[in-house]
Design a protein that fits this description.
about 450 residues; mainly alpha; Growth Hormone, Chain: A; 20 helices; about 75% helix
Length: about 450
């Protein structure tokens, strides 16, 4: 490292920083978290748009609820496959290039959704759209592994992933307004443009690792790696296959499946529930379909704080992560069971909000749990495989819900099925996820006084 590089990285010599640069000195990882948050917003706005615009799309293309369910499932079929491939690619080529390619690709196919005129074309576009969005969560996990210490993992993941629910909250009013002003087709085009703009900013500001970024000081680099010493050294990268084909990995995948099952009902069918069952107007829908996702946003954000607190005071990292995953999962399952007994928009929105709050708490904690049983060098591949299996929920949930609706079971039956799935998931997480490889040991590392509370 040259003297100039040393000066730039340590921040000990040179002109005084001011404004945003001074504020972020030693905290540049917060910029990465903010970019991931923004991408999560765009990602979920894009995928939620079809559910919000479903009545207009169904009417113009003359498709039934069952056919629309197949369209929703087509997205998640390819999404699941590329969740694994995206995680592998982020390990192989780095999360920066993976995200850059994926975001541009899904933005293009989001825009192309506005060009379809038949059911088959819609299914094909959604297949490619899902493939491009597939790397989202596994690559986010890879990026957090590179940029944050373990003791900040749940908060970093919680904040980054909360952008997804924040995007869903904004999607309803924005997409409804865009559809009203320019039609549903142009609404998809406008969303695609936003994704391309994000890609430009990401290319300018992000890097795969802190050491590659000129804005990161040596102190921040030391803080980031301070408590990841319990994982195998990167110089001796373990084989991926044994970590994929183990009981723990399948337990995590099945647990995440049960968390995503009701989530994808919300993404795909909640707007139709409000309009078809509770008979809300478009203006009322823009509010009712937004509020529950605010609950999800808060669940990710506050859940990360709670999960990291339980992690810090516990003696076993894995058990701590299990507790902060299973408890909110069971609560959300119970709440969904009560939806069958309410018949007003206010109560339905309140229950959906609480359910999404708890689901989001559980989801970010489960993603943090993966860090306790997986080497850092394999985080993308293992996380991607878990995401691949779990996202079969996206194939099953929307299609099964559409079938139940057409068969006369109604939304009550769909929500009760989701309740049962959640209870089974909690049991599977507790029994199947084990402390393989000793990665659950607590790491007692003295925190950097100037950095330990910066996130």
């Amino acid at each position: 490292m040259t003297p100039t590089d040393h000066t730039r990285r340590s921040g000990s010599i040179g002109p005084a920083r001011s404004g945003a640069s001074a504020l972020l000195s030693g905290r540049y990882r917060l910029v990465i978290a903010a970019l991931l948050f923004a991408l999560g917003m765009i990602n979920y706005m894009d995928r939620a748009a079809l559910g919000i615009l479903a009545p207009a799309v169904k009417s113009e293309l003359h498709i039934s609820s069952s056919q629309l369910g197949v369209v929703f499932s087509a997205f998640f079929a390819s999404y699941a496959v590329f969740a694994f491939l995206g995680g592998y690619l982020s390990d192989r080529f780095g999360p920066k290039k993976t995200f850059l390619t994926a975001a541009i690709a899904w933005s293009v196919f989001c825009a192309l959704t506005g060009a379809v005129h038949a059911l088959l074309a819609l299914v094909i576009v959604r297949l490619f759209f899902g493939a491009a969005e597939g790397p989202m969560n596994s690559t986010t996990n890879r990026m957090v592994t590179n940029w944050f210490p373990r003791k900040e993992t749940a908060r970093a993941l919680g904040f980054s992933l909360s952008g997804q629910n924040f995007g869903s909250a904004f999607a309803a009013p924005i997409v409804i307004f865009a559809g009203y002003v320019a039609g549903w087709r142009m609404a998809f085009v406008a969303l695609g443009v936003v994704g391309v703009l994000w890609s430009i900013v990401w290319g300018l500001l992000a890097s795969d690792r802190p050491v590659e970024n000129r804005h990161v000081t040596q102190g921040e680099q030391a803080h980031i790696v301070s408590d990841r010493a319990a994982l195998p050294p990167s110089g001796e990268k373990p084989a991926l296959r044994p970590y994929i084909f183990r009981v723990t990995t399948f337990g995590l995948a099945l647990g995440l499946f049960t968390l995503l099952y009701p989530l994808y009902i919300f993404v795909s069918w909640m707007p139709s529930y409000f309009t078809g069952v509770l008979h809300l107007t478009p203006a009322q829908l823009s509010i009712a379909a937004s509020v529950p996702w605010i609950g999800g946003f808060l669940g990710y954000s506050l859940g990360g704080v709670v999960a990291d607190y339980v992690f810090r005071i516990g003696t076993n990292g894995l058990v701590s992560r299990k507790i902060t995953t299973i408890v909110p999962l069971l609560i959300s399952s119970a709440v969904l069971g009560f939806v069958s007994f309410v018949h007003t928009a206010t109560l339905a929105v309140a229950l959906f909000t609480l359910a999404l709050f708890m689901l989001s708490m559980a989801t970010q904690s489960l993603w943090a749990m993966i860090h306790e049983v997986t080497p850092a060098s394999l985080m993308g591949g293992v996380g991607g495989f878990i995401h691949f299996l779990a996202n079969m929920a996206g194939v099953v949930s929307p299609a099964l819900t559409g079938y139940v609706l057409d068969a006369g079971g109604g939304y009550d039956s769909a929500f009760l099925i989701a309740t049962g799935v959640g209870v089974v998931g909690a049991l599977l997480i507790w029994l199947m996820v084990r402390g393989d490889g000793g990665h659950t040991r607590r790491v007692n590392v003295a925190p950097s006084p100037d950095l330990s509370s910066s996130f």
